[in-house]
Amino acid sequence: MNEFKQGIKDGGAIGIGYFSVSFTFGIAAVASGLDWWQALVVSVMNVTSAGQFAGITIMSAAGSYIEMAISQFIINLRYALMSISLSQKVTKEFHTPKKMLLGFCVTDEIFAVSMSREGEVSSKYFAGLIVLPILGWHLGTVSGAILGDVLPNNIVSALGLAIYGMFIAIVVPVTKKNRNVLLIVLLAVVLSFCLYYLPGLNQISGGFAIIICAVIASAIGAWLFPVKEEAEEEETHE
Question: What are the tens digits of pLDDT across the range 156-165?
Fold first, then answer.
């Protein structure tokens, strides 16, 4: 139970950030022609900000199912990489049914917090970690869909930026503790700038750009700073 409570505590900041982002999504969903309950259904079935915003854009433009499938696959493919990486850090009791149930809730921020946690990640901790983010995501969607027209535009815009500050707050403490992580983060930032500004490369979609940066940065990190196997560490201690 203590691990579950710790997970809830660690997920508090994410929940606040998700409320602000999904609030903006609720506004956009209603503006695109959805009812408030339809916007909620989208958020319940998809926990991905970029994917949901892209989805309602395609729906409002009367796009095809093929366009929807391809866009969602490209944008959300990074979650497959995150899940594979996270599966190497969970405890043995985190068996397949739990992975299938809780894996639906893997997001950028939840992944970052889980991977930055010292030691293994238990199913109880992960279950607690996702409670407030998921609650914030759903409540934010409903609030934005119903109350979006009441708030001034500058407040709505500010809410949309909150998640970036939250993600920085998650990453920075880890980079302060580990110089290797800092170097890999800086490498990912440089790659992201290149993919955004360089001619030709800036034609790559945002979803693929994230995947490319993650794969290249993590591959270089694994090559330069390999993690020692437990057996090697034991031999070193001896």
Answer: 666 656 656 6
